[in-house]
Write a structure and sequence with these properties.
Radius of gyration: 22 Å
Structural class: alpha/beta
Shape: globular
Helix content: 25-40%
Order of helices and strands: EHEHEHHEEEHEHHHHEEEEEEEEEE
Strand order of the largest sheet: 12-15-14-13-16-17
Largest sheet: 6 strands, antiparallel, barrel
Number of strands: 17
Distance between the termini: 40 Å
RNA sequence: UGUCUCAUGGUGUAAUGGUAGCACAACAGUUUUUGGUUCUGUUUGUCUAGGUUCGAAUCCUGGUGAGACAA
């Protein structure tokens, strides 16, 4: 295959970040090819506005632009997964699932189709190379750092990936957009929430045909099985949840465990829901030599939480054990645990 | 039936005759490319009818209700 060294395929969402990424890549001398994925639309038949915005921007910057309709793949890889996970009593992480099983795979395939040697996105992250290994590395903007979502990318992908935003902070990115004359782009609000499920995920679940027949009220109990109240259906709750239980015990209680088989949700006071050992599955480690029997790895189980010093043990091809030096709360199956050291992502996995 | 104790938001409780406060829940906002967490704010109350007092959740009387003891 003949790939052009200076051609880069950039995922363009139509938002501020990926738009400025296009500008920065051009400044770095890349020939940018833009692709906008159509993952999910509120209205099926109308071309959504973000596609038009991306197309206009590409035209302004004089770059080649493609639209890729990935709606069917997104449905099976992300939305169906999302629903199945909740029905299994887990807490899905759709953004990680999308990155791992869809977005980057498509970027890779399309990059070859368009003869691009590099892949790029508007993520706030960096890539560093060390001992011939490529590591996702924390961005300069610690507030916006998105490395937590990218732990699953393979070496083959990382070696081809460029993150032009990693050395900038958000306000600088907005400034660049404004300076280049994209005022409206500069003022766009940050995206937030799950892209296919604006608002409360519970409302989304209630609308799904595959879920409707399964909504059954059940019992809240304490850890010893004592009845505490009634709930609306186990998959409307998530580990660590405190509010919205419709139950008052004169002290705060949190969801500790969800048992789909008996439609039971177990509640406990905060000190009972902390955990110091986590089992991960479907892990991805960049270099196993990074891991020792010492507590020298920082593990994050939420992208905004402080990392916790920990020790990682490989159990088998699928499973890892994470021992934490201090307990963390709301460890929910389906969520990600990500390992860091010196700002580098050493790997991660899905909480079992 | 007799004696005693108690009655404050949705729940649990605090306030010596002087601004009815706290916790939990609920609601709203904040934060956020996941869920949850956090943070901020808001709503809601003195069982009832009288009396004493400048002033009553607080003291007095009746009623209603709950609990304990007695039988």
């Amino acid at each position: 295959m003949n790939l052009n060294e200076k051609r880069v395929l950039l995922g363009m969402s139509g938002g501020t970040d990926s738009s400025v990424a296009a500008i920065l890549l051009q400044q770095q001398g890349y020939e940018v090819v833009g692709v906008t994925f159509r993952f999910w639309d509120e209205q099926q038949d109308i071309e959504p506005g973000y596609i038009q915005e991306a197309r206009e921007l590409a035209s302004h910057l004089n770059i080649e632009h493609h639209v890729y309709d990935a709606r069917e793949k997104f449905q099976t890889e992300v939305i169906d997964y999302f629903i199945a996970e909740y029905l299994a009593g887990h807490t899905p992480f759709p953004c990680v699932k999308c990155n791992n099983s869809l977005k980057w795979k498509l970027l890779l395939i399309l990059s070859e189709e368009y003869q691009c040697s590099k892949i790029s996105t508007g993520h706030y992250a960096l890539i560093t190379e060390q001992n011939s290994f490529f590591y996702i590395t924390e961005a300069a903007d610690k507030e916006k750092d998105q490395t937590f979502f990218l732990w699953g990318l393979s070496q083959y992908i990382l070696q081809k990936t460029v993150f032009p935003l990693g050395n900038f902070i958000k306000s600088e990115i907005r400034k660049i957009a404004a300076e280049k004359g994209f005022q409206r782009m500069a003022e766009k609000k940050d995206s937030m929430g799950i892209c296919f499920c604006p608002g409360d995920y519970r409302d989304f679940l209630k609308k799904q045909e595959s879920v409707k027949g399964k909504i059954k009220k059940g019992n809240f109990t304490d850890e010893t099985g004592n009845f505490l109240g009634r709930h609306e259906g186990y998959f409307f709750y998530t580990i660590g949840q405190r509010h919205g239980l419709g139950i008052h015990l004169n002290k705060p209680v949190f969801v500790k465990e969800i048992i789909p088989d008996s439609n039971k949700v177990i509640l406990a006071p905060i000190e009972e829901i902390n955990q110091q050992e986590i089992i991960l599955e479907n892990y991805n480690l960049i270099n196993q030599a990074d891991f020792s029997d010492k507590f020298d790895i920082f593990t994050k189980i939420n992208y905004r939480k402080q990392p916790t010093l920990s020790r990682i043990t490989i159990l088998d091809n699928l499973h890892l054990k994470v021992e934490l030096q201090s307990p963390v709360m709301a460890v929910a199956p389906g969520q990600s645990a990500v390992f860091y050291r010196d700002g580098k992502v050493l790997g991660g996995g899905v909480i079992k």
